[in-house]
Design brief:
InterPro entries: Acyl_transf_3_dom (IPR002656), Acyltransferase_3 (IPR050879). Helix content is 67%, strand content 2%. By secondary structure, the protein is an all-alpha fold. Strands 1-2 form a two-stranded antiparallel ribbon. Helix 1 packs across helix 9. The longest helix has 33 residues.
Length: 344
């Protein structure tokens, strides 16, 4: 791959394709091993943390201090124009949306829960940035301690599981993964000679798939590991493996930039992963509507893949249109250097 941006886009493009296919199966043909798409969201949190850290670091290198209003304005411009377009389309299709969904404020079972969760990460990003810049890798045990204290407190209080706050059934785990991504630039600043990076990516991906399976409703009891038992909070060891495998894959891909299968296609998907995330559910519902629910899965997959470029083209038009609109409303517009920090 020619750049770290392409490496990140490849990760996002591959994951958004798997998520879209997973939603077609899970929403229309629920059964054994159809829950896998949700697991791939972990890559978006890590990749987003990596991109946001670099964006904030670039601001600090220039004259003056970090401009927080400008940072939040860019995040707002990046996220909400496309989201509000999705919101209007969803309302026209009679989806149950409320006022709290207009600004991604719903606490329980929001329709596009990842965007609600990434907003939490954006809000805390400057604080995490300054902590990581000051403590370096010493911030990792601090983050682990905070994650434990929050979960111990919430479990003691008996708070229910909420996906947007409890990814993988761990409260604020999405923010922890985001912070892990923000730690990657420190690791990447050291020169490494990674031998056979594609092989390492495949091995780490195998560990990720195993961890994903064992933290899902479809887990295999024969492969279960004992929990790390802490007071008031027990941690599934596979969640630790999941975190390490996702971070390792992102690190190897960004550091070594290996040539990967379907590279140009997945990089292109990654460039438009935000609108693809928002609008893919409409696409998969259309596929199922025209095919019905009597076909074998291979037929659905063939049609899903064949017409996916149509969805991609529409998403490209929507993203460029949203960028153009922001440019018209604000002379600075959306900086292309900080685009696509998660799915997008």
């Amino acid at each position: 791959m020619r750049s770290t941006r392409e490496a990140v886009d490849y990760i996002k493009g591959f994951c958004i394709f798997i998520i879209a296919w997973g939603h077609l199966l899970y929403n229309n043909f629920p059964g054994k091993f159809t829950y896998f798409g949700n697991q791939f969201v972990a890559f978006f949190f890590v990749a987003s943390g990596y991109g946001i850290f670099l964006s904030l670091a670039r601001q600090c290198e220039g004259p003056g201090k970090l401009n927080l209003p400008a940072f939040y304005k860019r995040r707002f411009q990046r996220l909400f124009p496309l989201y509000w377009l999705w919101f209007v389309v969803a309302l026209s299709l009679s989806q149950p949306l409320g006022w709290q969904d207009l600004f991604l404020l719903r606490m329980y079972d929001p329709p596009v829960w990842f965007l609600n969760a990434i907003v939490h990460c954006y809000l805390l990003a400057p604080l995490l940035f300054f902590m990581i810049r000051r403590l370096k890798w010493g911030s990792l045990p601090v983050l682990c301690l905070l994650l434990y204290l929050v979960n111990a407190a919430f479990r003691t209080l008996g708070l229910p599981d909420m996906l947007v706050y409890g990814f993988r059934k761990i409260y604020l785990f999405h923010i922890f993964l985001f912070a892990v991504g923000m730690l990657l630039p420190s690791l990447l600043s050291i020169a490494y000679d990674i031998k056979r990076p594609k092989t390492l990516v495949v091995l780490c991906f195998g560990l990720f798939l195993l961890a994903s399976l064992q933290t899902s409703p479809d887990r295999l009891e024969a492969l279960d590991l004992s929990y790390v038992k802490l007071p008031y909070f027990h941690i599934n060891k596979y969640n630790i493996i999941l975190t390490l495998s996702v971070a390792a894959i992102c690190f190897i891909m960004i550091q070594a930039r290996p040539a990967m299968p379907l590279q140009r296609t997945m990089v292109l998907f990654g460039k438009y992963s935000l609108p693809l995330y928002l609008f893919h559910t409409f696409y998969v519902n259309i596929v199922v509507f025209f095919l019905g629910k009597e076909q074998v899965q291979l037929v659905y997959f063939a049609v899903f893949v064949f017409f996916f470029p149509v969805l991609l083209g529409l998403c490209a038009v929507l993203q460029h249109g949203a960028n153009r609109l922001c440019s018209l409303l604000d002379n600075s517009g959306i900086q292309t250097a900080v685009r696509k920090v998660l799915p997008g």
